[in-house]
Amino acid sequence: MVRLRPVDGSDAEAIGIYLPLESEALKPSEYQPPDPALAGDFTGALLLRDAVRLGLRSGAGPFRSMGRLSVEPRPYQFVPLIMALRLDPVRLLIADDVGVGKTIEAAMIAREMLDRGVVRRVGVLCAPHLCEQWEEELRTKFNIDTAVVQSSRIGRLERGLPRGDVSLYQHYRHLVASIDFVKSDRNRQRFLDNAPDFIIVDEAHTAARPGGSRAGAQHQRYSLVRDLARDPQRHMVLTTATPHSGIEESFRSLLGILNPEFDVTEESDLPRRRLIPHLIQRKRNDLKRWLGVDTPFPEREAVERSYRMSADYHRLYQDILTYCREYVSDEGMTDQRQRVRYWAALSILRSVLSSPMAARATLENRKPSLAGRRNGVTPDDILGQQLMDSADEDQATDYVLAVPLGETDAALDASEVKRLDTFLRRADALAGTERDAKIRETVSIVSDLLAEGHRPIIYCRFIQTAYYVAEHIQAELGNKHRGLQVRAVTGNEGDSEQRKEIVLTLAKEPVRVLVATDCLSEGINLQDHYDAVVHYDLPWNPNRLEQREGRVDRFGQSKSVVKAVLLYGADNEIDLVVLDVLLRKAKAIRQSLGISVPVPVDSEQVVNALVSSVLLRGLGQGRQFSLALEDESVSRLHLAWDQMADKENRSRAYFAQQGIEPDEVARELEEMEPVLGNAEDVQRFLANAVQRFNGELRQTRTDGVFSLLAGDLRDRVAARDSRLTFPMLVSFEGVPPPSVTLLGRNHPVVATASEVVLARALDGNFPGFNRSGAIFTKLVNQRTAIVVLRLRYLVEAESQQFAEEVVSAAFQRDGGTIRWLSPMQSEALRLLRDAEVAANMPPAERQEHIEWALGMLSNGWAKGIVAERVAELEASHARLRSAVKGSKARVTPHEPPDVIGCYVLVPTGGVE
């Protein structure tokens, strides 16, 4: 089987030929030079050169994959790629800060390994709610089409199998799989038997070995990842912003995936120097001006706003608190039943403090729903993890907990039912801004944010609260802020794709507020459409706070400042405990060190004990409450947290990959730019191209933003992507403002334009799209030819790979030989860009000059150019893969180079 691609076509036009069935033998051919008889003027020279260069996908630069990317990586994102290229197999932990772009960094490695032929298949293991996001990122930005493996899609995937005995893990080349689906006993072994040879484990901390003897879902994930790593040929990249969750054993188990020798006991020192090639961990502040390139991470402005409950609301809260104290005071209960009752009481209190609607929903749940064991976890453990917003939860829950308010083996008596019904009626009467001070303060907060031009997200703990908040924000502010649209998104809105569609639909509204539960604190990046966060309900885990704010505070945020508003009750002890013990401490560490450090593992026990003391034992808010917050357990927690923060800060400094000098990255980027072009080249090409198709690229009043009319290219672009409409607001570099499209070399508009320009030039019958031309100009004083060359190579290292590049070169005649002008590329580009017509030239004379230039291209005319480029390619490969045995590259050029275009500049005073 031979795979053939038209030399001027795209990968989509490639075909396969099965030689035994082919009647005609394959034989070499030569690329035809421009026809001198079709010589025109000079106007299409630079356009053709840009079209061919921007159309390259298998670029011959130091990185083979860059021509296939539809994203422009930041310079710092090349560091993990360079680290990976120096490993065999790749075993890398990327632990950069939240919002730095770890998905991009991991996918860059995957694409490069594919294009080098090092790996054949790519697989991503991630949480179920992240599958669609990974699939979209790989498809739209890295041209990797994947099958999504999760329970809702299995039927569709199995219908696509060729035979019943073929596993879907074997049939589909690239996979994005729910780690919780493939870790199950039913799927685990089939996945292990047919797993891709390159695996990305996203949010890898959730697949670390749990501390102690704990079993359950996390241990199953760890077991799966560990067994994948046992194949010494498998390449693995782990990504997480929190590699150290506070459990040293778990952290070292992650390192053991990279190399089993790194999984040592806590008493043993880590082999830090040996870890350096495998671990990168950088703070966001260190990357803002890396290599002199501005990466506009936003600043986070955190503020606190408080409220005091109305008299009616406070009376209801106190009455329910009294009920809860009575509820847990039965001394005849078993320990487990007492714990379940304790969690039930806290659940009631937390929902009452959230909203009247959440209180109603919780009080109505009178039947036990979590009886029995689940994965070896008892009901009180499940309730505890959910109530405390535990980091051990597989995914954030937003429903009110269905907790047993009565004995599990007996119905509530009539008096207790009557008492609960009274609570329900009183809760219903508190809804609205008149009696609910919390929603009233939130209306004020949101109004201020909208007046400042922000687009806020309000995070709530419960589904009922989210709908309640959305309803009252719309009702109270709809008239004040014209055009305001408010929408709630919760776990009730189907899967992550359906929730994302709601978010994107709302994002089209100029004045908008999104109200969400923590189902949107993970997975969907919201920085393109929102720039402020309001914490309506305080999370009981600071990690959740960081997850919420990290949805908008990340690279790609167009606002220079994002706001985070923490709302708490000044007269309720639960909020004050969580705020003083956890959230303010987390904020202080972040402001001091510039990083977020996970709360130590025993924080849940400390908060649990404090809430129990303050609330269920009735300490109130006086002197006893203050003393409780100064408890020795709080001091120990804060000390452990400070020690962990210091250790984390030192670790990030050590593993920031200072060993890879910025100059190394700069050198590779400098070599890559002439091959593939930059943002300036894309802008120049598109402005030149659309003008020839009756379109326009026009500067708007906003710096760096243009209005694009595609003209006659409109239908061709629509055939490629029907969602694109014109006029289109576009930019070419940096972070585009909302509703502005960033155009890179692989965007459908640019790709369509380059293909059509090249096709018209090759046809030869379209004025202004000439492969050859000649003009009189004052720019030169000796006849000078410029050739646009395509150099093609076979690169043999780990496998055989095709590579190509476009080189522009100018020459003059020196006696009977060619004298190339130098510096070669920049001098040719200067002539192409600056030459202007000084006088008309007859067609016959144009043909004569082109015949002269092509006639000079004989007797090994390009050997010097080719040899220089081959040496540079082999050198760049050696630099990047120096540590990998047996990977020395041999570059075989196809000679002579293809002459795509030939143009002659003739001095106005004569030929010589």
How would you describe this structure in keywords?
elongated; 6-stranded parallel beta sheet; alpha/beta
CATH topology of one domain: Rossmann fold
Tell me, what is the CATH class of one domain? Answer: Alpha Beta
Helix coverage percent: 40-55%
Instruction: Please count the helical segments.
Output: 31
Query: What fraction of residues sit in β-strands?
Result: 15-25%
Summarize the structure.
With 912 residues, the chain is α/β, with parallel strands linked by helices. Among the domains are: 33-40 and 768-907, no CATH class; 72-281 and 658-662, Tandem AAA-ATPase domain (Rossmann fold); 311-428, no CATH class. The strands form five sheets. The chain has a seven-stranded parallel beta sheet, sandwiched between helices. It has a six-stranded parallel beta sheet with strand order 10-15-14-11-13-12, with helices on both faces. It has a five-stranded mixed beta sheet with strand order 20-24-21-22-23, sandwiched between helices.
Question: How would you characterize the overall build of this protein?
Answer:
Among the domains are: 33-40 and 768-907, no CATH class; 72-281 and 658-662, Rossmann fold, CATH 3.40.50; 311-428, no CATH class. The radius of gyration is 32 Å and the shape is elongated. The protein contains 31 helices and 24 strands. With 912 residues, the protein is an alpha/beta fold. The strands form 5 sheets. A 7-stranded parallel beta sheet has the order 5-6-4-7-8-3-9, with helices on both faces. It has a 6-stranded parallel beta sheet with strand order 10-15-14-11-13-12, with helices on both faces. Strands 20-24-21-22-23 form a 5-stranded mixed beta sheet, sandwiched between helices.
